[in-house]
Amino acid sequence: MFDFKYQLKILPDRPGVYLMKNSLGEIIYVGKAKILKNRVRQYFQSSKNHSEKVKAMVKNIAEFEYIVTDSEMEALILECNLIKKYRPRYNILLKDDKHYPFIKVTINEDFPRIIMTRMKVKDGTKYFGPYPEVSAVHETLDLIKKIFPIRSCKMAIKEGQKKVRPCLNYYIKRCNAPCAGLVGKEEYSIMIKNILSLLSGRDVEIINDLKKKMNKASEELEFEKAAAYRDKINACEKILEKQKIIGSNFQDEDFINVFSDEKDSCVQIFFVRAGKIIGREHFTFDNTSGQSSEEIISEFIKEFYGGTAYIPKDIYVPCVNDVELLQDWLSMKRGSKVNIKIPQKGEKKDLLDMVGRNSKIMLEQFKLKLLSDKRNNTAVVEKLAEFLKLDDIPHRIEAYDISNIQGVDSVGSMIVFEDGKAKNSDYRRFKINSVKGANDYESMREILTRRFRHGLEEVRAIAESKISLSAGKFCVFPDLILMDGGKGQINIALEVLKEFNIDIPVCGMVKDDRHNTRGIIYNNEELNLKGNSDIMHFVTRVQDEVHRFAITYHRSLRDKRVLHSVLDDIPDIGAARRKELLKAFGSIENIKKATYEELIKTPSISKKAAESIIQYFKRTSQSTMHNN
């Protein structure tokens, strides 16, 4: 048993990192402290000043551990690494690491290329960005290639080297073939200089030059050439108009602000590169009531820049905790000085205020969408209850599916919808242990038995105060079960429920010949669904989701080579014969349908082996009919 009083008493007066764990030993929060003793003790003192998130977290803390470091900087670095590793539920977490794309011009080559990359390194090349959206990078690259016949190959081309035959790009006028010696280094470098000017947005001389050439071609009645110049001018103007000039210092800067209501928060970040706003991103965080803006922004900076590939020179915020520590950490990551600034007036303050207003708008839009989705989801569940004539509204729905591809061992999946919305945290996957081969019915029996046995065990443990309700993974039972299949699957589920003395309605989701959702089987009756009805869309969504979840698990296991073919279970069929069978028939289903004469024509398949195959599939077919 974990002794809180003793552990709190012996906490050191040193900087370090602490890890909070729940009753299952899962790390639910990682934090850093300048003085471990003071910081950790605060969690277990009076909760009046605690935020709602901290109160919820403290209720789930069963034990904690800590790591002492030599400095607060070491603690900060370790904290960021541990958060990335464990993804604790009570830390502010972003969806993923933000390695934004750059446009890279390889000016260290004799004949430079322009490519997209997600890593910025000191390699003597020129970078532009980062760009928040990869589509913007692709569009810009496509526009540049329309204007300039720049090479896109990966060849190492040097001036004066042996000439090679040009590729197709030369003949369609997308490259001027430096590999074939058709353009010199000096002429090519002029084109690169124009591209750099265009990407920096500081020089529109190239557009004026193109306009002169267009007018000249038009005067000489070369209208096709004039149209080509016109298209290039439009492409140049599109690149230049992508960004809004907001300053004249041409520095790389990020502007971060936050808006919080009584429950949630939205952090918005604007990216300014070379004096232009090139994009923005927003991140919404749930249950931040009681957390200060300083705390939210500090946590956001650690999480965001801990994963991003690029850190600008200046970061503007309205407020922040540990500003000097964060500056030192960011400077260390960037390799040069980084400033976190709090502007009081002027254009920087105006832009930061605009970011704050956008944060408010984003949070309000998020809440409106959430409310609208909730109403729609609740409405469809109510309609489903009415359609099936259920006694109660099925607030929690669990759906099950079995996956096996070409006779490979089965795997099972369970997905959960609560009030019409997918609850990914309750999804569960099952690797079949007791069933050999592709037997969907017995595989389904196993996963349902395991699910409800574990559920009843957790219910008893909660009743005896051995675990908390939040620690249980199976203790909450569904109001409705949806099986991806027909009467056979339904009967298996009903048998398992009866064995555990549990009463839950069970439906089957059936498909037509085109594998589209056709209807629901309930109480041995197939109920057809109208094509465009809300219920049809919902059932289709559930069926597609449970199938997707099962397939992805199956593929992940197959990639790890832990599954075996159903052919392994057939006597007299070894690796060589299995390979020949799959080569000849293409799939397990075709082997199953094959006649004795077709089987013995297969190389290495003897009469005895053919008879063994036929007898095996005959037995499995009879077993399936029995379950139906």
Structure notes:
This protein folds into 5 domains: 4-86, GIY-YIG endonuclease, CATH 3.40.1440.10; 102-201, no CATH class; 253-364, Nucleotidyltransferase, domain 5 (2-Layer Sandwich); 396-559, 2-Layer Sandwich (Nucleotidyltransferase, domain 5), CATH 3.30.420; 566-627, 5' to 3' exonuclease, C-terminal subdomain (DNA polymerase, domain 1). It is globular. It is α+β, with helices and mostly antiparallel strands and 628 residues long. 45% of the residues lie in helices and 17% in strands. It has helices spanning 4-9, 36-43, 52-59, 72-86, 134-147, 168-171, 185-200, 205-219, 223-241, 293-307, 323-334, 347-388, 440-463, 487-499, 534-559, 575-585, 588-593, 596-600, 607-627, and strands at residues 16-21, 27-33, 63-68, 102-105, 114-117, 126-128, 244-245, 253-260, 265-273, 276-285, 314-316, 339-341, 396-403, 411-418, 421-422, 428-431, 480-483, 506-511, 517-522, 525-528. A hairpin with a 4-residue loop joins strand 8 (253-260) and strand 9. 31% of the residues are buried. Helix 5 (134-147) runs antiparallel to helix 9 and helix 8 runs antiparallel to helix 9 (223-241). Strands 13, 14, 15, 16, 17, 18, 19 and 20 form an 8-stranded mixed β-sheet that branches. A 6-stranded mixed β-sheet has the order 7-10-9-8-11-12, sandwiched between helices. It contains 19 helices and 20 strands.
